Amino acid sequence: MTYNFSAAALSARIDPLLDLVLRQQRLVGAVVLVRHRGQDVYRRAAGCLDREAGTPMVDDAVFRLASVSKPIVSTAALALVGQHRLGLDDLVVRWLPYFAPRQPDGAVAAITVRHLLTHTAGLDYGFFQPPGGAYAQAGVSDGMDASRISLEDNLRRLATVPLAYAPGERWAYSIATDVLGAVIEAVTGLPLAHAVAQLVTAPLAMRDTGFMATDPARLAVAYADRAAGESRPRRLRDAGEDHLPFLDGMAGFTLAPARARDAHAYPSGGAGMVGSAPDFMRLLETLRLGGAPLLPPALARQMGESQTGDFDMPFWPGRGFGLGFTVLTDPLAAATSESVGSWRMGGTYGHSWFVDSAQELSVVAFTNTALEGMAGPFVTELCQAVYGTGTLS
Fold it and tell me: Is 362 annotated as catalytic?
């Protein structure tokens, strides 16, 4: 099928969508970027960076990335693989002797770096578990709260909880990238922030991306979806912690927006980074075009290939998982116009992104509204607007 990704066509389709979702108070602010065949074909900052102060959104706004951190940290790990300093099939315990959780049968688990990258390690996230679940009882942080524990302390707590399944047995989205961050520290001998800068962000001049916001004036205020009876999204508490419900029976998210400015917060590889949409687009395009100067082409290609076979993918029908993000395997099951092999993920604070290599297309949508910007109708509506397959209502 032929699509029209010209600047004029994209503006005619995406602008009305952004105007609508802002008018409907589904989003407070957003930055949307589209690149096609290496060229900027759409770029818009809309709505508010800080609604209460009346500060408009800017295209270089800095956002709390949440799970958008994962492909960045995964790329850092793969850069070490490309340098022959780390192996995909290295046992994690080689690098982290203290991290030896047990399988459900009581045996010590043989978790590899590949298991961490593909989320097949047997780990979980506390926000998926029931309130007061095993991770909460062990004091495990998901990487977005206000805890002041160290990365090692968090992983030691994590290691006391039996795995949900034996490594490689199935797939489950998890805190695995936090463990991967600790592996990166062990391999490089550097704090994770310095290692990621050296391996990924500095070579790509991603100056706004790191584990702490360095320009608070550009840090987007975080909001939560409007609740029943409310007229607009709620500003998340900046001091202390706020709670964001997820699905019935799950603990939901414990968020501390101030963590983005806290030099003492542990560096969560899976959820702890901040960054701008242009920075992240630079990484996506680098990977789409073969990985240089970060990764050798074969490794960049492997990163974007599904590694999970026919494992069930809760929340992502029609997709598998590569070495850091989802990979589309069945567009019909996923109900999308994206091509087979497209990459996609998002972030709790309100982000979505995808890369359709067959169409030479990369799309980044960072918003400051959780969860609409990550998992609400806007995500599907934006995809439809990009391809020209949907209608506004």
Answer: no
The whole model's pTM is what?
0.98
DSSP 8-state class, residue 300: H
Contact 361, 335 (CB under 8 A): no
- Does residue 30 contact residue 367 with C-beta atoms inside 8 Å? yes
Beta-bridge partner residues of 302: none
pLDDT digits (tens, 9 = 90+) for 308-322: 999 999 899 999 999
For residue 46, CA distances in Å to 6, 43, 56, 60, 278 come to 20, 10, 7, 12, 15
**Low-confidence residues in the chain, pLDDT < 70:** 393
Q: Is 231 exposed, middle or buried (0-12, 13-18, 19+ CB in 10 A)?
A: exposed
Domains of the chain: 61-325 (3.40.710.10)
How far, rounded to the nearest angstrom, does the alpha carbon of residue 283 sit from its chain's CA centroid?
A: 13
The active-site residue, picked from 67, 174, 268, 362, is 67
3-state SS, one letter per residue, for 249-292? CCCCEEECHHHHHCCCCCCCCCCCCEECHHHHHHHHHHHHCCCC
Token couple for 364 = 């980044």
> Positive or negative, the Cα torsion across 248, 250, 251, 253?
negative
